[in-house]
Every structure is written in structure tokens, then in C-alpha cells.
Design a protein that fits this description.
Layout lengths: L2 E8 L2 E6 L2 E7 L17 E8 L2 E8 L4 E2 L4 E2 L3 E7 L7 H14 L2 E7 L6 H14 L2 E4 L8 H8 L3 E5 L6 H8 L10 H5 L11 E3 L5 E3 L14 H6 L2 H4 L19 H7 L5 H20 L4
Parallel strand pairs: 3-5, 8-9, 8-11, 9-10, 11-13
Antiparallel strand pairs: 1-2, 1-4, 2-3, 4-5, 6-7, 12-13
Helix pairs in contact: 1-9
The structure holds guanosine-5'-triphosphate (GTP) and zinc ion (ZN).
GO molecular function, one term: GTP binding
Subunit structure: Monomer. Associates with 30S ribosomal subunit, binds 16S rRNA.
GO biological process, one term: ribosomal small subunit biogenesis
Length: about 300
């Protein structure tokens, strides 16, 4: 049976892209049963059966890699973290928090430093140096002089991309420059419509040049530590996991344990003091989150 990717879900239909063909599918009864383990999601790679030309049934979900909640998309493999350098000014604390979330879901990050025309090159270079050293790809961008545009386009090709970043950092401006015919759902939806209300728009994956897709809804609107424990937090700092084999204790949280390679690395200036401070701050926030959300 043929296979394809769900690119849109609306009113009980799943739109499965198979090459240039889009097949409108309903889900087979097996997904509706209570004990059905998973329901099809936008982004899922599925086996389908074509019953009429361009119509059919989703039969089976193939090997889902991961699942984002906001927007609800499966198999995202790259988060494009858009951080402006000015208005709003760059926050390494917020970037580190986004990185925790994307590492936890298990997807790659592409960091775009937007509004690069508004600040000095020294600031840009120092941020690029810090995050490249950890192993992230960082690309400065400006919609005024279009620096970085082609490089970003190349990095997106072949991936399923979700854009994320605070309101006003320039996500829609970037999308407009990259893909003039994709319109990004903008603004903070929950603020505009009030909590709990539904929007009429649903996430859609839009195909891009060179293969791959971009989601037309930005992601990660909430950065609470849902489903993350202390060890997950420690594991989501790549620069720390790189050296944590050298910690004396397995499961070391690098807080005040003796023989900790991460604490030693920070003291010796090999790891970033700022990243470590953020890590400790997130630990506190995580504990606070756990206190507030006790099950009893
Ligand atoms: N100077 C300069 N201004 C920019 C750049 N990119 C965006 N802006 C401005 O920043 C403001 C916000 O840009 P948007 O693209 O709407 O930002 P957004 O992230 O989509 O914002 P939300 O819709 O709130 O999520 C607008 O006034 C843009 O003109 C840039 O590269 N340089
Ligand atoms: Zn340690």
C-alpha cells in the first residue's frame, strides 16, 4: 500500500501528501477505538489506501519519531528559534530555556538572530561564538539587508521545521522573506482569543523548495517544565553532557556533588558560567513547578 505524509487535518479528514498528489483520507475505525494507542497527527508518515481518485483511508501510522503539543505536529526535526537582537533585546536566559525544551523533545535547533541591522557586530559575534561552541548552528538575519537569508533557506531544506520565538522578534518577517507565499499565523493566539477558546485555523505543513516543510503556526508557546525532571534538565544541556562522563557519580546533577566534572569545567572557564547559572536557575524553577503541581 502507498505511503505519504499528513500535511493537514481538518473536519475529520487527513490530507496525505504523496509526491505531488494530495489524498483526502478518513481514518480507519481502528484509530477511533478507546484503546487506540495513537491518533494520526499532522506530520505523521502513514500507510494509506486509495479508494477513489484522491480519496481514501489512513490505515497505519509509521514509526513516529516525536510529537509536539503546540502546535500539534509529529516528526518535527528542526526548531527554528528566532531571537531578536534588539526590540525585544537578546535574552540568553530565554534562549537557554527554549533549548531545554527542544533538546527534551529530541529535535535539532537552528538559531536565527534577527534584526541584525539594529546592533553592533561585536554583540552578534559573541552570541554566535557562545552557541556555536556548544554545537548549535547560529545565523544572523536582517530583513533590511537580507543577510543570512540563503543560508537559512539551505538549512531548512529537507527538514520538517517549526518556528518559535517571542512575540515581535520577527518570525513573520522572516517567513515572508523566505517564502513569500506562506502566511504565518502570528501573534499570541491565547491572548487574542482568551484562554480555552478555539481558533478556526489548524496547523498545516507547507512544502518548501528543496524538500521538507514548514509549519504555518509557531511553536512552544508555553515554556513550563511539563514532563521534565531534574535528570532531563541536566541531559538537555549539551555542553554539560559532553563532559559529564567525568563526574564521579552517575546521575550527577552538577549542583554540589563532589568530583563533578561540570562544576570543575565552569570553574576552569571551559564551560560557560552564564549557561551554568541559567541551569541552576532552571533547577529552582523546576522544583517550584513540581511543588505547585503536586498530585495531592
Ligand atoms: N529593523 C528590523 N526590524 C525588523 C526586522 N524583522 C522584523 N522587524 C520588525 O519587528 C516587528 C515585529 O516583526 P514581526 O515579523 O511581526 O514579528 P513576529 O515574531 O511575527 O511577531 P508576532 O506576530 O507577535 O509573533 C515589526 O515591526 C517588523 O517590521 C529586521 O530584520 N530588522
Ligand atoms: Zn556533575
Amino acid at each position: 500500500m502507498p505511503e505519504g505524509r499528513i500535511v493537514k487535518a481538518l473536519s475529520g479528514f487527513y490530507y496525505v501528501a504523496d509526491g505531488d498528489n494530495i489524498v483526502s483520507c478518513r481514518a480507519r475505525g481502528l484509530f477511533k477505538k478507546k484503546d487506540a494507542k495513537i491518533n494520526p497527527l499532522v506530520g505523521d508518515w502513514v500507510v494509506y489506501e486509495e479508494t477513489d481518485p484522491s480519496e481514501g483511508y489512513v490505515m497505519e501510522i509509521v514509526n513516529r519519531q516525536n510529537e509536539l503539543l503546540r502546535p500539534s505536529v509529529a516528526n518535527v526535526d528542526q526548531a527554528v528559534l528566532v531571537f531578536s537582537l534588539h526590540e525585544p533585546s537578546f535574552s540568553s536566559l530565554l534562549l537557554d530555556k527554549f533549548l531545554v525544551h527542544i533538546e527534551h523533545v529530541g529535535i535539532d535547533a537552528l538559531i536565527v538572530l534577527s534584526k541584525a541591522d539594529l546592533v553592533d557586530d561585536e554583540l552578534i559575534e559573541s552570541i554566535v561564538a557562545t552557541y556555536s561552541a556548544i554545537g548549535y548552528k547560529v545565523i544572523p538575519f536582517s530583513k533590511r539587508d537580507l543577510r543570512g537569508l540563503e543560508e537559512i533557506r539551505r538549512e531548512l531544506a529537507g527538514h520538517i521545521n517549526v518556528f518559535a520565538g517571542q512575540s515581535g522578534v520577527g518570525k513573520s518577517s522572516l517567513i515572508n522573506c523566505l517564502f513569500p507565499n506562506v502566511s504565518m499565523q502570528t501573534g499570541d493566539i491565547s491572548q487574542k482569543l482568551g484562554r480555552g477558546r478555539h481558533t478556526t485555523r489548524h496547523v498545516e505543513l507547507v512544502p518548501i523548495e528543496g524538500g521538507g516543510y514548514v509549519a504555518d503556526t509557531p511553536g512552544f508557546s508555553s515554556l513550563e517544565f511539563v514532563g521534565i525532571d531534574e535528570q532531563d534538565l541536566a541531559n538537555s544541556f549539551r555542553d554539560f553532557t559532553d563532559v559529564s562522563d567525568g563526574c564521579k557519580f552517575r546521575g550527577c546533577l552538577h549542583l554540589s556533588e563532589p568530583g563533578c566534572a561540570v562544576q570543575a569545567g565552569v570553574e576552569q572557564g571551559e564551560l560557560s558560567q552564564e549557561r551554568y547559572d541559567h541551569y541552576r536557575q532552571f533547577m529552582e524553577e523546576l522544583k517550584e513547578y513540581q511543588r505547585r503541581n503536586k498530585p495531592w
